[in-house]
TrEMBL record:
CDD domains: DnaJ. GO terms for biological process: protein folding. This is J domain-containing protein. SMART domains: DnaJ (SM00271). It comes from the Eukaryota. PANTHER family: DNAJ HOMOLOG SUBFAMILY B MEMBER 5 (PTHR24078:SF553), DNAJ HOMOLOG SUBFAMILY C MEMBER (PTHR24078). It holds the Pfam family DnaJ. GO terms for molecular function: protein-folding chaperone binding; unfolded protein binding. GO terms for cellular component: cytosol. Residues 4-70 form the J domain. It comes from Effrenium voratum. Keywords: Chaperone. InterPro entries: DnaJ_C, DnaJ_domain, DnaJ_domain_CS, DnaJ_subfamily_B, HSP40/DnaJ_pept-bd, J_dom_sf.
């Protein structure tokens, strides 16, 4: 059954960024496994789900996709949608420790009364460019690969952090040397006023031909 990320944090679907932060603070503290020794299995499951819900809702692009397609669509995009399936790969305990290490974890870099106004991004961050080498057989027959992207994303309180994100890359039969595959919004996001950058993967054939 698909999970309701908003319900996990105890917030409404129109919640502001500050309310998402508050919701995570309350829910994570309530369901931390150390606070629930008598229901450890349930607490561990809830604690993980709460971290995943926060990871989705705090990111504007992920939240937009979740609102439009739900958890199932976010993780398994319908045919015709040009975005990568989402998978939570974070550490719920690391997120909790980072979040509560701040003296004021709910502090934000803008005035609260402006939260209800639409935010118009001022720029799009520079794309991350990666190369992946494929054999002639992979390009002819198709294959499945995975690239690990080192990127910067925004965490609690809009504090940038670095992560390594595995991105599945299905090699389609007929792809050619020099093709660029674009994953929209899967690059760096280091400034809340900018839209996330893209991830561009350049396909390069192993036989040494020059890519373009």
């Amino acid at each position: 059954m698909a999970r309701d990320y908003y319900a996990l944090l105890g917030i409404s679907r129109s919640a502001t960024t500050r309310e998402i932060l508050t919701g995570y603070q309350w829910a994570a503290a309530k369901w931390h496994p150390q606070k629930n020794p008598g229901a450890k299995v349930e607490a561990q499951s809830r604690f993980h789900d709460i971290a995943e819900a926060f990871d989705v809702l705090i990111d504007p692009l992920r939240r937009q996709r979740y609102d439009a397609y739900g958890e199932v669509g976010l993780k398994n995009p319908p045919l015709g949608l040009d975005f990568d399936p989402y998978q939570y790969v974070g550490d719920p305990f690391e997120l909790f420790n980072k979040f509560f290490s701040s003296a004021d974890p709910l502090s934000v870099a803008y005035e609260p009364e402006l939260e209800s106004l639409p935010v118009i991004p001022s720029a799009k961050e520079t794309a991350i460019e990666l190369e992946i080498e494929c054999s002639l057989g992979e390009l002819k027959e198709g294959s499945s690969r995975c690239v690990v992207v080192e990127r910067t994303r925004l965490g609690p309180g809009f504090v940038p952090y670095k992560e390594k994100k595995p991105v599945p890359l299905p090699i389609r039969p007929g792809w050619q040397d020099g093709m660029r595959i674009i994953f929209k919004g899967e690059g760096n996001h280091s400034d809340k006023n900018n839209t996330p950058g893209d991830l561009a993967v350049l396909i390069k054939q192993k036989d040494g031909r020059v890519s373009f």
